[in-house]
User: Which sequence fits this backbone?
């Protein structure tokens, strides 16, 4: 087929370059060939040839053909040497960069199983080495402490290095358990290398039994906190972080820092996020939960004790840097706190005031509750205004009490009440009573503050029935806020907030920021009240999108995640107990504007809403 | 591997802890240490080629002072209801316990054990219907934690009833 394929030769026949046969033969052959070439019968072939030439010249290639030959081509090129790899590597590098910029998660997921264990092994090797180094140094030193540790090693059957490590570590998370909340069955378990762990299934069951026991036995406790959060056994404490379906328990040796709580919270959130369906439909088979390993391993943290001798200069340097770095933020917090303390001192010290409850919240709004008398030199508002605390950041609940006399500098009413109303009513902290002569000289009290709904209910009945030697109605309870009702109201207020996200996952629009701040404030309110009423709070952040865009579910989830990240940032300063933030995509299934067909109407559906899930313990 | 949470329930001193010890560690002791709260143990089991882990919650026994907390039954797949064959009143406790479980924790498969069968001369239970429990139970077995009689069978019967509720589990010689 040389005649067809050679572009240089065009349609002209190529001269045979083999040795010349007879001239007549050549002539005859040429005749035949010419007849063939000019014959209209071969027109389709000529057309094909033309097309082929066209393709080759223009460089256009049929993708299907290319796909067929590419694998072989790559293999061949690989066998030949480096060239293909060299040519491709900048492109591949760039592709990876772009992919990571857009969404790092798949890459992280892919490399974590490789890197995670490697890092952990490296760290534990380094620690072990550090210890054995120290071990040698100390082996020859005769400090009293080293002798004591050596004795302890002998007594407990541990190696000297082990004792030393435990003594010089400020804390170490030794084991993390992921436990199915309902059954108490172990879902997954990670251990710090070198830590001897007891049977994790049994520990998991026992922990659940203990937390159940605590929950059942102390349900009436009014104090803050949602369920058991920490229990201590000797030098080890167990930190418990509950999610709706699974509980994370970390065995911590030494004094774990409070930030550890955040890691646990994040891990519980991540596990619930990634294994939502598996958790919901758990039937006793824990095999899939091996996938939670990265979330659990993240909590296996430790910190060395700051060395006591030497390194003073370095310490000062570090301290200096710290002050420079976080000083501004911390300074604000500290200042705000100092100002608040001063205000509280003023209120306590001023004649005519009785402060029942104060609650400083340096991120959100602070609260003041109490009585004041008409004889007071100033109104409460004036005192707050005169102080350095911003009046707009304080929620005050002051009740005017005509006959109230308070001793200057003290917090108790001057004429000592002959009847201890607080004791008779078994009043919780946060409720105060002021006594005064009522009509006709009968004793009369006014209460202020905040309490659980159940207590209020009971107290009202007691008062109505007559309290001790007092007649019915001797105590005015109308000034006591019902915390449970407050919580319900706060949760409802939070549910009312709609954070619009008009474009992409961009939260920078003014209205978006404004609503976000409102949502954060209300979430903090809910968290504070939940903590006071012994509820566990899970904040569900729900993303909704319009029905116009594609992949709405992903979009909605990214919206929710962006908002959740903002809320997580303020959570540590919220003043409430610990709470979880979970995200969910509602997609376009719960539209705000139902029959919006035009783009602007649909945009209104791109929003984030929040739901507070409260679980009483 | 599939895990099942299984609870041991019954009046005090009927042999709940002893049955678990026999099943898990193949040991028996005449000494009586009353269980306070709950103790957890586990044992692996193979059922029709499927490997199972039974996580056993050995609960405190019910008596005049102690009422078993029903929250311990949360998430349980089933329970062993243990009666002491030499003390008829423990059968009544079992009836009450089951009623409380069904109102507070829900209906769960259970296997009824008439324990201490080695003390045949002191056997004191002769109600054939066992106060209605026999019909409700997935199986009823005479057991002895001391001899090991029907102990493995009891746990297997319960696992069977949980995994495959349709299968009519074996009826023991009661
Ligand atoms: N002869 C005989 N004695 C038994 C048997 N099972 C248990 N016992 C004895 O009965 C006593 C109580 O046994 P436990 O297993 O502690 O009973 P329990 O139900 O766990 O008791 P509580 O934890 O208090 O509710 C112990 O002295 C046991 O040795 C049995 O099958 N035969
Ligand atoms: Mg027992």
Assistant:
């Amino acid at each position: 087929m040389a005649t067809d394929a050679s572009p240089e030769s065009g349609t002209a026949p190529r001269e045979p370059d083999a040795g010349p046969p007879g001239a007549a033969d050549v002539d005859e052959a040429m005749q035949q060939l010419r007849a063939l070439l000019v014959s209209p019968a071969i027109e389709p072939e000529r057309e094909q040839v033309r097309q082929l030439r066209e393709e080759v010249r223009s460089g256009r290639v049929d993708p299907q053909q290319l796909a067929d030959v590419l694998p072989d081509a790559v293999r061949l090129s690989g066998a030949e040497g480096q060239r293909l790899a060299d040519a491709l590597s900048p492109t591949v590098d760039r592709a990876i960069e772009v992919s990571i910029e857009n969404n790092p998660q798949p890459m992280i997921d892919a490399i974590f199983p490789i890197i995670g264990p490697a890092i952990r092994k490296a760290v534990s090797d380094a620690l072990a080495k550090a210890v054995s180094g120290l071990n040698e140094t100390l082996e020859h030193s005769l400090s009293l402490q080293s002798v004591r540790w050596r004795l302890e090693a002998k007594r407990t059957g541990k190696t000297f290095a082990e004792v030393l490590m435990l003594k010089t570590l400020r804390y170490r998370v030794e084991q993390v358990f992921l436990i199915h909340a309902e059954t108490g069955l172990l879902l997954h378990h990670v251990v710090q290398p070198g830590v001897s762990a007891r049977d994790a299934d049994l520990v998991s069951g026992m922990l659940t039994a203990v937390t159940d026991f605590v929950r059942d036995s102390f349900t009436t406790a009014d104090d803050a906190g949602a369920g058991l959060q920490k229990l201590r056994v000797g030098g080890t404490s167990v930190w418990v972080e509950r999610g709706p379906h699974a509980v994370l328990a970390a065995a911590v040796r030494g004094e774990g820092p409070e930030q550890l709580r955040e890691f646990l919270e994040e891990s519980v959130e991540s596990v619930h996020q990634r294994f939502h369906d598996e958790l919901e439909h758990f039937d006793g088979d824990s095999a899939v939960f091996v996938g939670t390993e990265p979330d659990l391993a993240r909590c296996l943290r430790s910190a060395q004790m700051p060395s006591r001798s030497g390194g003073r200069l370095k310490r000062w340097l570090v301290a200096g840097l710290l002050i420079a770095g976080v000083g501004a933020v911390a300074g604000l917090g500290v200042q705000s706190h100092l100002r608040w303390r001063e205000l509280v001192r003023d209120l306590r010290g001023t004649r005519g005031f009785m402060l029942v409850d104060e609650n400083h919240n340096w991120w959100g709004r602070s609260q003041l509750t109490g009585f004041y008398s008409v004889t007071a030199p100033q109104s409460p508002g004036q005192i707050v205004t005169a102080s350095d605390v911003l009046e707009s950041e304080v929620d005050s609940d002051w009740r005017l009490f005509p006959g109230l006399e308070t001793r200057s500098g003290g917090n108790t009413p001057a004429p000592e009440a002959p009847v201890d109303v607080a004791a008779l009513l078994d009043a919780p902290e946060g409720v105060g009573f002021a006594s005064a002569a009522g009509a006709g000289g009968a004793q009369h009290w006014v209460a202020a503050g905040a309490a659980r709904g159940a207590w209020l209910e009971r107290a009202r009945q007691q008062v109505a029935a007559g309290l001790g030697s007092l007649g019915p109605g001797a105590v005015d309870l109308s000034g006591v806020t019902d915390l449970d009702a407050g919580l319900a109201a706060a949760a409802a207020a939070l549910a009312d907030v709609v954070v619009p996200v008009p474009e992409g996952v961009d939260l920078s629009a003014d209205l978006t920021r404004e609503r976000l701040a409102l949502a954060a404030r209300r979430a903090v309110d809910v968290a504070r009240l939940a903590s006071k009423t012994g509820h566990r709070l899970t904040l569900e952040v729900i993303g909704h999108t319009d029905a116009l865009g594609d992949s709405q579910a992903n979009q909605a989830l990214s919206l929710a995640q962006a908002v959740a990240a903002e809320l997580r940032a303020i959570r540590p300063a919220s003043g409430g107990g610990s709470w979880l933030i979970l995200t969910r995509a509602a997609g376009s299934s719960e539209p705000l504007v139902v029959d919006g067909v035009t783009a602007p109407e649909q945009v209104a559906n791109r929003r984030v809403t929040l739901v507070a899930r409260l679980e009483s313990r | 591997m599939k895990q099942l949470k299984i609870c041991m329930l019954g009046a005090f001193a009927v042999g709940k802890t002893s049955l678990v010890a026999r099943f898990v560690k193949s040991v028996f002791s005449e000494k009586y240490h009353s269980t306070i709260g709950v103790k957890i143990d586990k044992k692996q089991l193979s059922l029709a080629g499927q490997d199972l882990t039974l996580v056993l919650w050995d609960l405190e026994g019910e008596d005049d002072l102690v009422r078993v907390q029903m929250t311990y039954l949360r998430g349980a797949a089933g329970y062993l209801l243990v009666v002491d064959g030499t003390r008829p009143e423990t059968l009544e406790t079992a009836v009450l316990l089951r009623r409380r479980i069904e109102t507070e924790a829900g209906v769960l498969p259970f296997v009824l054990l008439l324990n201490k069968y080695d003390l045949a001369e002191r056997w004191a239970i002769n109600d054939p219907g066992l106060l209605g429990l026999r019909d409700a139970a997935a199986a009823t077995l005479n057991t002895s934690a001391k001899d090991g009689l029907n102990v493995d069978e009891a746990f297997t019967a319960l696992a069977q009833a949980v995994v495959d509720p349709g299968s009519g589990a074996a009826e023991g010689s009661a």
